[in-house]
Amino acid sequence: RAKIDSRGTFSFFEAALDARAQTRRKIEVELRDAIQNDLLRPYYQPLIDLSSGRITGFEALVRWPHPERGMISPGEFIPVAEETGLINAIGGLMLRSACRDAAQWPDDVRVAVNLSPLQVHSGNLLSVVTDTLKQSGLPPRRLELEITETLLLEKSAQVLATLHALRALGVRISMDDFGTGYSSLSYLRSFPFDKIKVDQSFVRDLGANREAQAIIRSIISLGKGLGVTITAEGVETEAELSCLRAEGCDEGQGFLFSKARPNTEIVSLLRAQRGVDGGETDA
Ligand code: C2E
Ligand code: MG
Ligand code: MG
Ligand code: MG
After folding, report:
1. Ramachandran assignment for 237, one of left (phi > 0), alpha (psi -120 to 50 degrees), beta (any other)
2. Between these two residues, 282 and 70, which has the higher pLDDT value?
3. How far apart are the CA of 61 and the centre of ligand 1, in A?
4. How far is residue 72's CA from residue 65's CA, in Å, rounded to a whole number?
5. What is this structure's pTM?
6. How many Cβ atoms are within 10 Å of 66's Cβ, its own excluded?
7. 238: which of 189, 208, 213, 275 lies 20 to 30 Å off by Cα?
8. CA–CA distance from 177 to each of 84, 147, 164, 261, 279 (Å)?
């Protein structure tokens, strides 16, 4: 019996691997097709200034409306896109769409775009960003680029030079998912960041959990010491929000404020905000 079990387990394991590979392959084929047919769309989630409650900008998040499966989340296809190199095409189209859309927003509203490790190491990021800004007419100071700390694992001179050149243009650089990687603190010393986005795992349970509060407090004081903006990701409850406010966190993002929405809704959201602020009608 034992022998049969172990053989059975072995072939079950192989079959599972095979099924996994097939799923990935299917995603790859369909994703390639979606890119070619221009089906991927940016959705935008607001970033809120916690002292004024105003929208300071939006993060562009890729969405894939699939004919049979509905909206597929990036968590499912970004890893496949990274493995297959399709992320370069996705990154390029997200940057173009985001800059083009943001150019139509009010002048004090920024747009944040996620970059994949491949894009940052590609060697042509600076020219891609420069060209895209020029074509869209978006001023560089209104663009933020989000980089997850895992990508910086190699502290290459080339990556460092690219980041400095982008900042010299006026583009802002954010460290995404702060605290989830191995070397968050050493990256802060080596790379030029304007903003730290604290991962939602540290925001969860704020107000109810003393440890979470102590960690947030020290990240915020670190940010003040470095002169960088601190943004809390994944704010879902009023308790989390009031704790973040009390600790002096600069910005928040999360379902409490809004989920990511298509650009058509962003335009009316911003119009409503302008109406509340100044009583202005649409210009
Ligand atoms: P991220 O850059 O950290 O983006 C934030 C994610 O948290 C988004 O998930 C957003 O919908 C989600 N989120 C926002 N507020 C809340 C909240 O209150 N609660 C919870 N539970 N989640 C919240 P999304 O859109 O599924 O994206 C997942 C990840 O995929 C992103 O994490 C980013 O790493 C990656 N991604 C998305 N779009 C792009 C892209 O255009 N290029 C690249 N390279 N990566 C992207
Ligand atoms: Mg991000
Ligand atoms: Mg993030
Ligand atoms: Mg995150």
Report:
1. beta
2. 70
3. 6
4. 6
5. 0.92
6. 16
7. 275
8. 23, 9, 21, 21, 37
